[in-house]
Amino acid sequence: MSSSFPSSFPVPPSKTPKRKSLPDFFAPVRKVARVTDTCPSSSSTLSSPTTSTSIPEVPQLEPKYLSVPGLSLYENFITPSEQAQLLSFLNSDQCTWRTDLSRKTMHFGGTYCLMPSQEEKKPLSMPTSEKKDQPAAAAASKPSKPSSPEILQAPPMPPQLTWLINRMVTRNIYSDDLRPQYCIVNRYVANLGISAHTEKFAFAEPVVGLSLLDACSMRFHELVEPCDGSVRSGKAGRAKRTGRRVDVWLPGRSLLVMREQARWGWQHEILRSAKGRRVGFERVSLTFRVKVGKQTMS
Predict the structure, then answer these.
(1) Could you report the average pLDDT of every consecutive run of 10 residues in the chain (298 residues)?
(2) Which residues on adjacent β-strands are paired with residue 42?
């Protein structure tokens, strides 16, 4: 990947103009404003995070290309202070965590499926006292069907993530005309994980994941052929694998980029295990995705 700026981002001159005469040395030097992808500070306006004129403290890093074809990793993609600001936003009153799964999740862009609670899944039955008094009615009664999953509209991509998306654009991870429209946030604690899957084929590439807080290993499984099946349908679990697998270590504040075979021909998962995790382990991930054309679902 090239580290050059896209054409829509002005690049400041690398050198100041040469001073040719003695008076030139006493004339004020005109400073050139530069557009940055810096995270807004606590005193900045969150709705316009790209207007800062300070030079970002994040190194212009080249990615590490991993053994899975099409997989790359940017370490230290954000600073510790930027990580703290992201977490502060996600845990603020402006955001709502889903609690219908074993792990907490959050969605931006499109729609998502809210699963019924465990209590709602239980079929309703007549109380024991009523069964004794009305045995015939109890025998004739049928259990109520559990609630069905509910499709909900997610809030749009928030302005508090604009600076992060801008940084991905300036690193040529995404193009300026195809920015991420969708983001899923997952919170893993203790031994929580996520089953092996590929992202829905309705989404384009790349699929990008930002890791916050504790480091974690992600396991990749090579497939015999691409499989678009979901975990919920059971198709992901039935996908044929070659037997080749690769474990990738994801440090906190790193950015994982999945393209080509890594995106389409390999499943990825976070193992449900506390092995190697410290007491109080916590990892938060933000997964960004794009669609080409009309955007409707997440």
Answers:
(1) 36 41 46 50 40 46 93 96 97 91 89 62 48 49 60 90 96 95 96 95 96 98 93 90 97 97 97 94 97 54
(2) none
The one-letter amino acid at 232: R
- Separation CA 262–CA 66 (nearest Å): 10
Give the Cβ contact number of residue 72 at 10 Å. Answer: 19
Q: Are 196 and 235 in contact (CB under 8 A)?
A: no
For residues 214 and 195, give the distance between their C-alpha atoms in angstroms, rounded to a whole number: 19
Quick one: which of 119, 125, 117, 116 has its CA closest to 144? 125
- Report DSSP letters for 226-274, one per residue: -----TTTTHHHH--EEEEEEEEEE-TT-EEEE-HHHHHTEEEEE-S--
The Cα 26–Cα 29 span in angstroms is: 9
Give 154: exposed, middle or buried? Use CB within 10 Å, 0-12, 13-18, 19+: middle
pTM across the whole model: 0.72
Q: Is 40 helix (H, G, I), strand (E, B) or coil?
A: coil
Question: Residue 54 is which amino acid?
Answer: S
SS3 216: strand
**Per residue in 216-226, pLDDT tens?**
999 999 999 99
Helix, strand, or coil here: 24? helix
Amino acid (one-letter) located at 125: S
Whether the ω angle into residue 206 lies within 30 degrees of 0, i.e. cis, is yes
Rounded CA-CA distance 257/264 in Å is 13
Q: CA 215 to CA 283: how far, in whole Å?
A: 7
Q: ∠ CA(33), CA(38), CA(44), 5° rounding? A: 90
Q: How far apart are CA 297 and CA 174, in angstroms?
A: 20
- What's the token pair of residue 151? 């499709």
Structure tokens at 234: 């059971």
